[in-house]
Amino acid sequence: MSDERKVGQNFDADKADSIFDKLKNVEGKIKPKREGKFDNIKNLMNEAQYLEKSGKLDEAAELYKQVIFVLPDSQKAYDALAKIYQKQGDVDKEKDILKKAIANCKNDNDFKNRLKEIS
């Protein structure tokens, strides 16, 4: 029975400190960053906005479509995509994307109003 571990014995202070550092945000320590689904979507949105500002509307539209594919209720992506189609003068695509936005983003009446304006 002398092989049994007793409280306070066999305690490795360095290992315990390492574990506690991982469990809480200790000043000077960097927590490992988890890259999740929403981080990727945020990156897509940022890239799409950059492309849009650079005048690369077709490339930006493709990225906004990817965001919508992953997050079908993304009001920002629908809004940006509709604005791109408006800039390009493509009323049919603008109407189509607004209809999809209305179907997927039920809490936003702005899309309904915009659709009425161009219809």
Q: Can you tell me about this structure?
A:
The chain has helices spanning about 15-25, 35-55, 55-70, 75-90, 90-105, 110-119. The chain is an all-alpha fold and about 120 residues long. It has a domain at about 35-119: Tetratricopeptide repeat domain (Serine Threonine Protein Phosphatase 5, Tetratricopeptide repeat, Alpha Horseshoe), CATH 1.25.40.10. The longest helix is centred in the middle third of the chain and has 17 residues, at about 35-55. The radius of gyration is 25 Å and the shape is globular.
In CATH, the homologous superfamily of one domain goes by the name Tetratricopeptide repeat domain
What are the segments in which pLDDT stays under 50 over at least 5 consecutive residues? Answer: none
Structural class: mainly alpha
Q: Terminal Cα separation, in Å?
A: 85 Å
Number of helices: 6
Mean pLDDT value: 80
List how many beta strands DSSP finds.
0
- The biggest beta sheet, please? none
Layout of strands and helices, then pairs:
Layout: H1 13-23, H2 37-53, H3 57-70, H4 75-88, H5 91-104, H6 110-118
Helix pairs in contact: 2-3, 3-4, 4-5, 5-6
Summary of the model, kept short:
The protein is an all-alpha fold.
Keywords:
mainly alpha, 119 residues, 66% helix, 6 helices, Serine Threonine Protein Phosphatase 5, Tetratricopeptide repeat, globular
